[in-house]
Specification:
binds fe (ii) ion, mainly alpha
Length: about 190
């Protein structure tokens, strides 16, 4: 079958070998990185701040949820806190791989984060605030994935992974909200 590919795949291996030796200080970041590294690092650090705020909020909710009716919700908050921490670590590792510095500075954390830190005054409030935060995370990751497209496939795949987890989290919070408010929020 004839191929529709018109451009042959050409890689100047000699030149690639020369460049690979030239900038060892840049680690995994090679000269054909197509994105703007500074923009990538800024976006990843903002996402990192979002995850840190999510860890803090879920941890607070996990500790604060008391009473027999809250047991299942409490367990869910705890599980999400651990998963958000895993996201935080993966983003920090990627920032480091790209030659950047993960920003864990608590100063200015909330202004870098897309999600907010809202305590909530009762269990339903807490669930609702987490659902709001998850929806914010879903929307920002979806935008970032579109932005990275094919320029930085490793970062895009990482974000796709995180997006699918945040969608699960949003769904978990939605289910809990329905269970605790006693009415469905979606038509079906
Ligand atoms: Fe997350
Ligand atoms: Fe999440």
């Amino acid at each position: 079958m004839a191929t529709t590919q018109t451009q042959p795949f050409v890689s100047d291996i000699k030149e690639i070998r020369r460049r690979a030796r030239e900038h060892l200080e840049e680690g995994a970041r090679t000269t054909n990185y197509e994105g703007n590294v500074d923009t990538t690092l800024k976006l990843l650090n903002d996402a990192l701040a979002t995850e840190v705020v999510c860890v803090l909020r879920y941890t607070f909710h996990y500790v604060s949820a008391v009473g027999i009716q809250s047991e299942a919700v409490k367990a869910e908050f705890g599980a999400h806190a651990r998963e958000e921490q895993e996201h935080e670590m993966r983003l920090a590792e990627r920032i480091n791989q790209l030659g950047g510095k993960p920003n864990f500075n608590p100063e200015g954390l909330l202004s870098r984060s897309a999600s907010q830190y809202v305590e909530g005054s009762n269990l339903v409030d807490m669930i609702r605030e987490n659902l709001v935060a998850e929806r914010i995370a879903v929307e920002t990751y979806r935008d970032m994935i579109r932005y990275f497209a094919n320029h930085d496939p490793t970062t895009r795949r990482l974000l796709e992974d995180l997006l699918s987890k945040e969608e699960e989290h949003a769904n978990d919070m939605h289910d809990l909200l329905v269970a605790h408010q006693g009415k469905p929020m979606l038509d079906s």
